[in-house]
Amino acid sequence: MAYVFHNRNENKDKYDELVKEARGIRNMGILLTLGLVGCVVLVPFSILSYCVIGIDVLSLVYLMYKHGNVMNEAGILASGVSGENRVFDTLRQLPDEYVVATNVPISYGENHSEVDALVMSPYGMYVVEVKNHKGLIEGNCSDRVWKQYKNNGFDKILKNPVLQMRNQKRILFGMNKKRKLSVPINGLVVFPSASDVSVGADDVLYGLDSLNSFLMEKNTVRVKPIELCRVIKAYGVDLNKVIYGIYAFYKENCPELLEGIGG
Predict the structure, then answer these.
(1) Are the C-beta atoms of residues 201 and 165 closer than 8 Å to each other?
(2) Is 112:106 a contact under the CB 8 Å cutoff?
(3) Which one of 22, 98, 150, 231 is most buried, counting C-beta atoms within 10 A?
(4) Pair 128, 90: CB distance under 8 Å
(5) CA proximity to 115, closest of 125, 126, 105
(6) What is the pLDDT of residues 71-87, one digit of tens each?
């Protein structure tokens, strides 16, 4: 079973903030409603009371609208986090020689991004970009945007995630070059909740059934153990958590490469 190291998930943090904001809006709405009822019951009718009631009603309408928008944004984030977690749980089922870091911030020069899942192994590195859109996804690898169809009709457009994934590969290549790390880098986009994907690309999957088999399809040892240890440390994983599994893998499969693994 692969070792999975979880970095801080900014989307989860944003979701928690939005839920807290929505709760505050709801509480304010409750107070306004109680004040409105009190005004109607206790305050004698006058022009002033009508004005107060009107302002309260308008304020309640605005709060309801704002609460709906905040909860809708929170729902989108929750869906994304849910999709990521399903992918992470699936990646955990990879063999012992795999190490997975989630939500990895990366940057090279002025180019910044965050990798949903960075898979590291004796076979190289894999950038895994997760998009939890449902329905049918259509597009082309060179298109700026793709289309999403749900309930037998067009739903919305989304940014082409292949372009995002390829940009992340470029950033990682630059980071590795700066650190003098020589490791093959591959990329993959996965839609865990989509019913179908038609984008003409082999590196885009839907569902989770074939995710791990896709990652393991070309398993040929390409990374020396000392280099793999350096990569794992460079991307924030505690080497002590995985060193024995790495050693066991190389000892069984490539004992001739073990020199220097303790460095």
Answers:
(1) no
(2) yes
(3) 98
(4) no
(5) 105
(6) 888 888 888 888 899 99
